[in-house]
Amino acid sequence: MPTYNDINENTSLVRYMDFWKFEKLLKDSAIYFTRADALKKDDDYEGTLTKELYDFLIEKIYCADMLRFIIKSLSRPNLSKIYFGETEITGNMHNDLTNIRNRFQKVYNYLKQWLFVNCWCIGEYELNTMWSSYTTKHEGVAIKSTVKNIKQSLRKEQIKEGGRIRARKITYCDYDEAFQGVTPGDAPLFFRLGGTYEILKHMLFTKTRYYDTERELRLLFEHPKLPQLSDLLGSEINLTVSDKDEFKLIKVNLDILISKIILHPGANDDFHKRVKTIVTETRHIHNMSTDKITVSNINSSPYSL
Predict the structure, then answer these.
(1) 248-283: pLDDT as tens digits
(2) What per-residue confidence (pLDDT) applies to 286?
(3) What angle separates helix 19-28 from helix 269-281, to the nearest 10 degrees?
């Protein structure tokens, strides 16, 4: 079942798309989730570390009390060797930091193949910049929804893939200054089962401040076969494999999901008819009425005396 941390269920959401994507949405009765490692095509900062989290990983984590204890204990002959992934912790700080950083990046790149995202814009009203960014020409639509509608439309029995879905507002920050909420006291979680995953997923809910006008809420789908951390500790696993699904289509109840279908501000009457026609022709799939189709408010006549 989807989880929605600290998000008001009545929060209004809008998703912008070209007509062909809208047509596919109706015919598939499913929303499109992009694989996380494809996000950097649009934003080089996607899923990357802020400077402080980077410093934390390569310095503060090494200097944590627990890790210092481990290194000190390496001299004990009856103690098993200590590893970060397949990398042995030797006590040589320079080599260990380099190896830990490289291993973390490999594991992260590998895990992103098992995580998929779907993005929405938070807000009651349309944004002209979003129309420009996510639709071409004048043949586009925007679908309106709410967090509650998304939650209800993604019923557990409809998620046949069995994966987990979570939703969170994107945090926009300065990647050279902002701290992502991890403190030196959290260092031991990197050495606990599952701890690394929480940091990696957290990074997928953070973007550079230059995109804050998008006001994004992101759905994150975890593939049910997401590898366990214990599986990644072995030396035989191939972290370069890239044969996973490039996207996921998650079935939804469109009549619950969509409250309005908004036509592009520049749409003409012919396009209006096209949208009405495709909604009518696919009604046996989604059960939506054409009454949900509405024109954009952006080009409404201004008030004048």
Answers:
(1) 899 999 999 999 999 999 999 999 999 999 999 999
(2) 93
(3) 10
- Beta pairing, strands 206-208 & 171-173: parallel
Non-local (6+) Cβ contacts of 88 within 8 A are 81, 82
Cα–Cα separations (whole angstroms), residue 63 to 68, 182, 285: 6, 15, 58
CB 17 within 8 A of CB 135: yes
> Which residue, 69, 65, 63, 98, is CA-closest to 82?
69
The C-alpha atoms of residue 65 and residue 191 are separated, in whole angstroms, by 13
Closest to 57 (Cα-Cα) out of 83, 86, 18, 96: 96
- Condensed to tens digits (0 to 9), the pLDDT of residues 105-145 reads 777 778 888 889 999 999 988 999 999 989 988 899 999 99
Quick one: tokens of 1? 């079942």
- In 3D space, the residue among 193, 214, 59 whose CA is nearest the CA of residue 131 turns out to be 214
pLDDT in tens, 190-245: 444 345 566 667 778 888 788 888 899 999 988 887 776 556 655 556 666 666 77
Cα separation, 83 vs 66, whole angstroms: 14
